[in-house]
Amino acid sequence: MNTMHRTVMPALLAALAGIASAAPPDVASQEKTVVAMATGGVGGGGKASEAVVFSGQATISGKVIYDNVFGAPPVLEIIVDLSAVKGKGVQSGKAYLVSSQTILHRPLLAFDPLEVSFPFAADGNVLQARSARASFGVYYNAAKGMSTTPVVISQSPN
Question: What totals of helices (H) and strands (E) does the chain contain, helices first?
Answer without folding.
Answer: 1, 10
